[in-house]
Structures are given as structure tokens and as C-alpha cells.
Design goal:
This protein is an alpha/beta fold. It has 15 helices and twelve strands. The strands form three sheets. An eight-stranded parallel β-barrel has the order 3-4-5-6-7-10-11-12, surrounded by five helices. Helix 1 packs antiparallel against helix 12, helix 6 packs parallel to helix 7 and helix 12 runs antiparallel to helix 13. It is globular and about 55 Å long. The two termini are 35 Å apart.
Length: 314
């Protein structure tokens, strides 16, 4: 696959290999790791515009960043155009360069509230949200699905709506809302969307290897790919795809993640986050299952570090 830079307005992404926003995982430390390994863009975990409006403390934690994160992108969830515009312009998001609008979340309570993938059924509201967020002066991107069900797919038409409303880029998960996270992605829908618009189109969904990433790019003609769960399982994939050198071991990476997380978050958060990341990274390591329970029982960072040493070194 061709590794290239992507221009979004006045921003230049260093590569066309992106990391998806994932609840519970894409906090500041993981984003910094992905950037270090070659990712061109990483997003915060999904942030609710309504929660932001009411100054929810937990939501503010999701927005943590520092000047070391060169390009800052937040994913915003909401269905009310006025609230989305208000939050896009708010001081809470002043440090962010990019707002990615979630138009793909398939979860039932999100869908029923008229947010996430429900916006794909209301093109007028979709356009109003994009136009309102554009007034913030930030780069606006959209993440959506191929449609609502396997017999109701319209990625190309929806991509045109987003482009005409002012979106700077669109990421398309190759599954419909009804498919949730299972089933073979419909790459032809992404291919049609790419042919329908002039803004960058990013392919997402079902990418679990370097070979699959290359196949998805070749089949769809997309401008880039977005990794999700495989990026957690094998963070080295960013280096493998982009060619950015990395001589660190998995244990070194996790040790650095502990240090960076503990520097900016409390111990409870750090323990929870590292256990989740390590759990993904140990998936295909033989003979490590016996340590998993021990890892989750670790009550201090020192204990956790010792168990990780057993898993990733011995």
C-alpha cells in the first residue's frame, strides 16, 4: 500500500495510517504511542457533546492532552446541531485542531437518542451539524458506516452530503449499523464513496493484519486506512505499515506507557488502562494465559510491572 501524507486544510498528516477512537483505550498515552510508531492521526475516545455542555468531570478527563501531541483530534457525539456548534466553539475544545463527528456508533441507546449512526437517516440534520461545527474554524471530519442495514446501504450518497456541508474528510466503517462489529466489511461501498467525492476517504473495519490493510487500500482506492482493535493488539502495526523504525520490545512499550500514564493520571486509572492494553497485546502470546488472572489482581503499579515482565519477557 502507498504510504503518503494527507492534507486537511492547513494540517498535514504524517501518514495515511490512522487510529480509530476507542472508548476506554485511546487516551493521551496510547495516542502518543501510536504517533511514535507512525500513525498519522489519532482521536480521543468518543466525547458526548451533552456531557461537555454540563461540564461532566469524567468527560474532561477524556480531553486531556499536552503540547507534545502535535495534532489534536477529538471525536464528538451528538445529535443536536445547536449543542454541537456550541461545544465545537467552546473553550473546552480550544486546544483541538480537528473535530471528528461520530455518525457511525451503532449502539442501541445511542441510535435511539438520534445520535451516532442515526444521523445517517437524517441528512438535513447531518448537514446542519457539520455546518455548525465548521463555524468553530477547526478541521471537521466525519466517521460513519456504509448504511443502516445490509439491504439499505448508501455510503456514496452520504459522503456527498458530508462533503457538500463542508466536511474535510470522511472515514467509512465497511459495515452497516445492523451488522454492529461482525461480518465481512462491504469494501465496494467504500470504493463507491471514494469515487463520489473529492475529499479524503478513509477505509475502516475488519483490518486485522498488514496484508488486510494493503488489500483494503487496493480494493477501495481509499486515501488511507483506520485501524481499530488490531491497533491495540499489535501497536507495532503502525511501524510495520509506515516503515517508521521501532526497536523497542512490547515490554519496553508497556513500561513506558505505565510511566507516561502515571505522570498524568491517578493510579486507579493507570492500573485499569494498562491492564486493558496488556490484555490485548498478550492475545497471541503462547503460555501467557496463566498470568492473566494474576495481572488483573495486581493492586499496585509495581505488582503490575512484575507480572508484565513475566508475560512479555520470560
Amino acid at each position: 500500500m502507498e504510504i503518503k501524507k494527507i492534507r486537511l486544510g492547513n494540517l498535514l498528516l504524517s501518514s495515511n495510517v490512522l487510529m480509530a477512537p476507542l472508548a476506554g483505550y485511546t487516551c493521551y498515552p496510547f495516542r502518543m504511542l501510536a504517533y511514535e510508531l507512525g500513525a498519522g492521526l489519532c482521536f480521543t475516545e468518543m466525547v458526548s457533546a451533552n456531557a461537555l455542555k454540563y461540564k461532566d468531570r469524567a468527560t474532561k478527563t477524556l480531553l486531556f492532552t499536552t503540547e507534545k501531541e502535535s495534532i489534536k483530534a477529538v471525536q464528538l457525539l451528538g445529535g443536536n446541531p445547536a449543542v454541537m456548534e456550541q461545544m465545537a466553539k467552546s473553550e473546552l475544545l480550544k486546544e483541538f485542531d480537528i473535530i471528528d463527528i461520530n455518525m457511525g456508533c451503532p449502539v442501541p441507546n445511542v441510535f435511539k437518542s438520534g445520535e451516532g449512526s442515526a444521523l445517517m437517516l437524517d441528512w438535513k440534520r447531518t448537514a446542519a451539524i457539520i455546518q455548525g461545527c465548521k463555524k468553530s474554524g477547526k478541521t471537521i471530519t466525519v466517521k460513519c458506516r456504509t448504511g443502516i442495514s445490509e439491504d439499505n446501504m448508501f455510503a456514496a450518497e452520504f459522503a456527498r452530503v458530508c462533503e457538500e456541508a463542508g466536511a474535510d474528510m470522511i472515514t467509512i466503517h465497511g459495515r452497516s449499523r445492523s451488522m454492529m462489529y461482525d461480518g465481512e466489511p462491504y469494501l465496494d461501498e467504500i470504493e463507491k464513496a471514494k469515487a463520489a467525492v473529492s475529499i479524503p476517504v478513509i477505509a475502516n473495519g475488519g483490518i486485522y493484519s498488514v496484508e488486510m490493510a494493503k488489500r483494503v487500500m487496493e480494493y477501495t482506492g481509499a486515501d488511507g486506512i483506520m485501524l481499530a482493535r488490531y491497533g491495540l493488539e499489535n501497536p507495532f502495526v503502525f511501524s510495520e505499515l509506515t516503515g517508521k523504525p521501532c526497536k523497542k520490545t512490547a515490554f519496553q512499550i508497556l513500561s513506558e506507557q505505565i510511566e507516561l500514564t502515571a505522570q498524568h493520571y491517578d493510579e486507579t486509572f493507570t492500573l485499569s488502562y494498562i491492564k486493558k492494553i496488556a490484555s490485548y497485546m498478550m492475545k497471541k502470546r503462547r503460555g501467557t494465559k496463566k498470568y492473566k488472572e494474576q495481572m488483573y489482581k495486581s493492586g499496585s503499579l509495581e505488582e503490575l510491572h512484575q507480572v508484565l515482565e513475566l508475560i512479555f519477557i520470560s
